[in-house]
Amino acid sequence: MKIQENISLKDYNTFGIDVKAKFFVEVTSLLQLQKVLELKAYPEKFILSGGSNILLTQDIKALVIFINLKGISIEKETDSDVVLKVMAGENWHHLVLWSLDHNYGGLENLSLIPGNTGTAPIQNIGAYGVELKDVFKCCTAMEIASRELVEFDTERCQFGYRDSIFKNKAKGKYIITSVHLRLTKKNHQLNTNYGAIENELKEMGIVYPTIQDVSKAVIAIRRSKLPDPNEIGNSGSFFKNPIVSKKLFEKLKKSYPNIPSYPISSSEIKIPAGWLIEQCGFKGKRVGDAGVHEKQALVLVNYGNASGKEILDLATSIQDTVKKKFNVVITPEVNIIR
Ligand code: EPU
Question: What is the DSSP letter of 69?
Fold first, then answer.
């Protein structure tokens, strides 16, 4: 375990923002993590995992701790279910493929989401009708102040739409070290109701899909719409889809009869932020190396050398324009590090 100095973080965040960590250390065991957290010489610490949900806007003066804990193991198994213990540093999509290779069901709709397993609970990752919480049993986290391991079950995690206790009350206090997921071994519950999946399976000529087929469909959809962070820097959806009052929605619908929407409750409606942003003319727009993806307006991209500030400026101008045109506030899903 070596503390390095002045390390570029370009390869450690999927936006590919080139800022420097004044101090940087990689940890590969819980013991190392405990020791690093005890280092008095570096009172400020910054926890970095897959770097898939952050926008870095300046150099980091704190000690950057890169969580590289690896391992997938079976915790418990019955005839029908399996509980996996997945260490935080395991790449999420690698885990999805591993589970499909073993014919374990539950993660197929969450294929190809960038990032690591340890950060999945923080924003309760979700796609195509499934969220992490649907397969989640619990996670283990190290409390930074005491260096003790604490367990968070589903209830304690307070999962919401792209939200959890780790974005609220527990923010900055814990490091998730492993995640325990409950998957099925047989009688898999397929979630193929999402329109895009249904269409894709039809195009693939599949009538009775397996979990592997669903994963292939999701991968095809994502590849067709979302940029690959290995090719163009991005953090997936930059904003959350806003939830507005039914009253505001009815008003908007009068001016924009084609506005897409999902009912949330009797009084609330979710509107796709991608649609709002596209209506404001931002889709495919580029300012220097910062841009709005041409196929999905919810995704901001770095074409090469954009700074975090340039991406943030573009995001702010999108927020302002959407507010002005629709009177709807859109908030970032991505964690902005200022
Ligand atoms: N739309 C537009 N223009 C756009 C993008 C979308 O009009 O540029 C419209 C679409 O036509 C559609 C609606 O918006 O009617 C929804 O679009 P889509 O199905 O692509 O999903 P989304 O709401 O934009 C959410 C998640 C994605 C997830 C997909 C599929 C959020 C913030 N994003 O996007 O998650 O993959 O649903 O389930 O909830 C992520 O979080 O990083 C992410 C990619």
Answer: -
Fold for domain 233-337? 3.90.78
173, burial (CB in 10 Å: exposed 0-12, middle 13-18, buried 19+): middle
| Shortest-distance Cα residue to atom 1 of ligand 1 | 275
Q: pLDDT tens track of the chain, all 338 residues?
A: 899 999 999 999 999 999 999 999 999 999 999 999 999 999 999 999 999 999 999 999 999 999 999 999 999 999 999 999 999 999 999 999 999 999 999 999 999 999 999 999 999 999 999 999 999 999 999 999 999 999 999 999 999 999 999 999 999 999 999 999 999 999 999 999 998 999 999 999 999 999 999 999 999 999 999 999 999 999 999 999 999 999 999 999 999 999 999 999 999 999 999 999 999 999 999 999 999 999 999 999 999 999 999 999 999 999 999 999 999 999 999 999 99
CA diameter of the chain: 61
Q: Which residues pair with 151 in a beta bridge?
A: 140
| Residue to probe by mutation, ligand 1, list 223, 234, 298, most atoms within 8 Å of CB | 298
**CB of residue 284 inside a 6 A radius of ligand 1:** no
When computed from its CA atoms, the radius of gyration of the chain, rounded to whole angstroms, is 21
> Considering the domain 4-67 in this protein, what is its CATH number?
3.30.43.10
CATH of 72-225, one of 3.90.110.10, 3.30.465.10, 3.40.50.300, 2.40.10.220: 3.30.465.10
